[in-house]
Amino acid sequence: MKKLNLTTSIDVFESSEELSQQEQILLQKAEEACNKAYAPYSEFYVGAAVLLENGEIITGSNQENAAYPSGLCAERTAIFYANAQYPDSPVVSIAIIARNKNGVLDNPVAPCGACRQVMLETELRFKKAYDILLVGHSSIQKIKSSKDLLPLSFVGEGLIKKADS
After folding, report:
1. Is 75 a catalytic residue?
2. Confidence band for 86, pLDDT divided at 50, 70 and 90
3. So what's the pLDDT on residue 51?
4. At what angle do helices 21-34 and 74-85 cross, to 10 degrees?
5. Deepest in the core among 103, 105, 143, 160, taking most CB within 10 A?
6. Among the options 75, 121, 123, 157, which is catalytic?
């Protein structure tokens, strides 16, 4: 038997003032998007802001539905819109923030598995990793690639049918 050790490196900031001005703007846009979330059932509001290489910032918020599986997370809302409207512009970074009825959560919340897969697919599509900023009231976590969120990922290589020799 062999043992496989996986490691993830996360930079942790105590304040948004430690981030670049561009990252601070992205956090502000994510918070604005969070305030537009539609979450009447869970009262769990999430906002995401995606910075593209062309300078555009695309935001998204979670959108719930009484039939829970019919909703969509903030991360996927923003990334899908960005990829649809700017298909040739890679993602540079994404900021994600969550709150409940009492305000922004103290600790950052990581994306769900479906969002992690979409984030990874976006990196693979553009062959470029991007920063992920997870925002909480007490700290901000900066992750350098979605591969760090999804180390044993499904990359779809088995889906591509190879030509017969």
Report:
1. yes
2. very high
3. 98
4. 110
5. 143
6. 75
